[in-house]
Design brief:
heterodimer, A: alpha/beta, Rossmann fold, 5-stranded parallel β-sheet, 14 helices, 44% helix, B: mainly alpha, two-stranded antiparallel ribbon
Chain lengths: 405, 296
């Protein structure tokens, strides 16, 4: 054996031991990621199995890039049924019985609030991607909860401002009657009024979930606002938009303001039903080459294009895993330290920083308009980007935050 | 709220009322004759919508042929269910058929979800109304979708026909006789078993018809029946278990009440029907149109 080969061999062996030593600082020898999501209900298509797949992809990519952690990251997906009590119980069960080190996704604000409260008590990091309420980084903020991708302030700030400035200055809003809808309604009204718009009447709270929105559409018909604002999401939003078209409101001069829009909603009803509607999104798959590249990989693995929620689950899982690698341990307090103030840039989170004071993850977001089928260049090409709101302006400024950590 | 808006909501409520009426009509017919509380009714309503959607996808069938075919198919499925499963439970405690039909609901929902996801890659699909009925019509006091007017009209006609058949024809007389006293009816040489199967098929077919009618208004999705069925049961109870007139009248009335309620005070919209149910049961335990148990 010649000298070079021997050196290489020794170096590899040394690296191997080093790696092993690093990985040994993990609690129970593994990093366990728990995807707490909706596997059967209204949000199962925009998050659900796709979120579990995204987290798995992040785990695999991380292990490939960090050999010391090879075989040490596991991912499990659990159904929280969008119910706060179920989410709390499942979070506790995953942490206590399965030794989960980090929870991710959490669609439905009420479920996210319940799960993050359990995670806080048990000192486990929670990365909320699909839950939207700003309470997570305000009155309910805590040391172990991070809010990724988007929130109601960012949606309202983006869409309310864009729509109002384009002439949609009188609104009638309906919202689903739970934490998310109530919060988004408040934020949207504030954003519209701040830009000189007004409400033609009080907003109406609708049951959640709900299929028939005709009463509210008829009310809009007689009130004649410039914009009919819907804060519904998922299947509920699909029903609202379907009936908005059925009642011919667009022809009567009443535009559509959408609080929260997912790619799957547009796919469910067809682009033309949504054409011209403005929304704010943290990401879309054909934004640029880097996004496309990841989206193609996901499509190959999952069979469908990713929603931004699923892309966000990948990104947040990866961000967490990399923080574990930097901290060289999965002890929550050390990982929190590695996450706080961290700046990064990946295919999803552009120009991103994790604000240490309230754990809001700041990133660039985009105001988009839905293209008609005729304008679309390829399958899934649904958005025209109107503007990009820089990370520093997209989210609630720290001065307004009620977070006391 | 001004009177015009109130009038609009009363009118709008008839649409949902039409669905409640069609569904509770089927439930009433089935309960009246078979003493089965058919919990699977909502799933069979969903199946009507799904069959119409699938016929369109597989054979390019439009709304009109589906409006005839889908209820027939669902009715046939009902006949098979009655012959193979339900008929084995007659004479047992009612909780058995409740459990069976509830289980069938879960099974049907998940099956349809699997099929939709694997075949069409969606779990919720839009269904468009026929060309002739798309668009809106200005009624003077409101601009209303043509299709919804059609739904109101058709369901009123169907309800009238069902009522007529049961109250005024020989077929109806046999059905009523089989309900009142199966033993004596059998003694007259009438095959009660076959009539029971037929009635179940028709009742379920009505649910299928409601499903096809609902598809263009709501999206076709596996759980579309589960919300509706709870309200429908309340309608049946308010109207009087087994009363045909009661279920139809109450169906439309509850639809109107819910629409007006949701315009006046939205949070109460879904609770209204149960408040009404509680009040009615306090005053008339057998429902508005139901006969007291002893009078049967």
């Amino acid at each position: 054996m010649n000298k070079t080969k021997l050196t290489a061999l020794l170096a590899t062996a040394a690296l191997g031991t080093l790696g092993a030593a690093q990985a040994q600082t993990l609690s129970d020898g593994a990093i366990r990621v728990g995807v707490l999501t909706d596997l059967s209900g209204v949000y199962s298509e925009l998050a659900g199995q796709g979120s579990v797949k995204a987290a798995q992809m992040a785990a695999e990519d991380f292990m490939k890039a960090n050999k010391a952690y090879a075989g040490k990251v596991t991912v499990t997906g659990v159904d929280h049924q969008n119910k706060a009590d179920v989410a709390g119980n499942k979070a506790a069960e995953m942490i206590d019985r399965q030794g989960v080190d980090m929870l991710v996704d959490m669609p439905t604000s009420s479920a996210a609030l319940a799960a993050t409260e359990v995670a806080r008590q048990k000192k486990v990091i929670a990365m909320v991607v699909t839950g939207a309420t700003t309470a997570l980084t305000n009155e309910k903020c805590n040391r172990y909860t991070f809010h990724y991708a988007y929130d109601n302030f960012m949606l309202a700030n983006g869409t309310g401002t864009a729509v109002t400035k384009r002439g949609g200055n009188s609104w009638y809003i309906i919202y689903p009657n739970y934490a998310f809808g109530q919060d988004l309604n408040r934020q949207m009204m504030a954003a519209v009024q701040e830009n000189g718009g007004k409400m033609v009447t009080n907003s109406d709270a609708t049951p959640f979930p709900n299929t028939d929105f005709s009463s509210y559409l008829l009310k809009a018909q007689s009130l004649k606002p410039k914009i009919f604002g819907t804060m519904q999401a998922g299947n509920d939003l699909v029903n609202v938009v379907k009936q908005y078209n059925e009642f011919g409101l667009k022809k009567q001069g009443i535009g559509l303001g959408i609080g929260l829009l997912f790619e799957t909603d547009v796919a469910a009803l067809g682009q033309d039903a949504f054409a011209g509607a403005i929304a704010t999104v943290p990401w879309f798959w054909n934004y640029d080459a880097r996004s496309r590249q990841w989206a193609m990989k996901f499509e190959k693995a999952f069979g469908k294009k990713p929603t931004w929620a699923q892309a966000g689950v990948y990104s947040s899982t990866m961000t967490y895993l990399q923080a574990v690698a930097r901290a060289k341990t999965d002890t929550s307090d050390a990982v929190v330290k590695a996450l706080e103030g961290h700046s990064f840039d990946d295919f999803f989170a552009r120009n991103a920083t994790i604000r240490a004071q309230d754990h809001r993850v700041l990133l660039n977001v985009h105001t988009v308009m839905v293209k008609s089928k005729a304008e679309s260049k390829e399958a899934g090409d649904i958005y025209t980007r109107l503007a990009t709101i820089p990370a520093a302006k997209a989210f609630m400024p720290l001065s307004e935050s009620k977070c006391k950590m | 709220m001004n009177t015009q808006l109130l009038l609009i909501q009363v009118f709008n409520g008839l649409v949902n009322g039409a669905f409640y009426a069609l569904l509770s009509l089927g439930l009433a017919v089935i309960f009246g004759m078979l003493r089965i509380v058919n919990f699977a009714h909502g799933a069979l309503y969903m199946l009507g919508a799904f069959v119409a959607f699938a016929l369109g996808q597989a054979f390019g069938l439009g709304f009109w042929p589906s409006l005839i075919l889908a209820p027939l198919i669902v009715g046939l499925i009902g006949v098979v269910l009655e012959r193979t499963l339900l008929s084995r439970l007659y004479g047992l405690e009612p909780s058995y058929n409740l459990l069976l039909t509830f289980g069938l609901t879960l099974l049907t929902q998940d099956l349809v979800k699997q099929v939709m996801l694997s075949q069409y890659a969606v779990s919720s699909a839009p269904y468009t109304p026929p060309e002739a009925l798309s668009g809106v019509v200005n009624l003077g006091f409101v601009v209303f979708p043509k299709y919804r007017l059609f739904v109101i009209a058709l369901s009123v006609v169907i309800c009238l026909i069902t009522w007529f058949v049961i109250e005024k024809t020989r077929v109806g007389a046999i059905i009523r006789a089989s309900t009142e006293n199966p033993g004596v009816t059998r003694a007259f040489g009438i095959d009660v078993g076959k009539w029971v199967t037929g009635v179940f098929g028709v009742g379920v077919g009505l649910a299928g018809l409601a499903g096809v009618l609902a598809a263009p208004i709501y999206s076709v999705e596996p759980y579309m029946g589960s919300e509706l069925i709870i309200t429908t049961f309340a309608v049946v109870v308010i109207g009087g278990m087994g009363s045909i007139l009661g279920s139809v009248v109450t169906g439309f009335a509850v639809g109107v009440l819910a629409a007006v309620g949701s315009a006046l005070y939205p949070p109460i919209a879904n609770t209204l029907v149960f408040i009404l149910m509680a009040l009615v049961l306090l005053v008339r335990p057998s429902g508005l149109f139901g006969l007291p148990e002893g009078a049967r």
